[in-house]
Amino acid sequence: MAVNKVQQRYLKGLAHPLKPVVMIGNKGLTETVLAEIDKTLEQHELIKVRVSGLEKAERNAMIDEIALKSSANVIMSIGHIAAFYRAAKEPVIQLPKK
Asked: Which of 9, 36, 66, 98 has its CA 20 to 30 A from that of 29?
């Protein structure tokens, strides 16, 4: 499900105080890390991920890959931190309509 601009702005506000719950280090984006991201998205819907040790282009490529493989929306990306959103089967976060 793609989020529109209003929903994205709302989710950015919710994501701002969150701390990163998944850290990606030197080994990069492994299947274990992807499984952890998937499990955490199921539980929380909105998470932050820290991507360390990469240049900007590689970081952005990894963020896009995470979004693609986890079927999540990238809400924001600042420096080494990215926020992802994926609605749960029974959503807790109520998104604005427009």
From this structure: 9
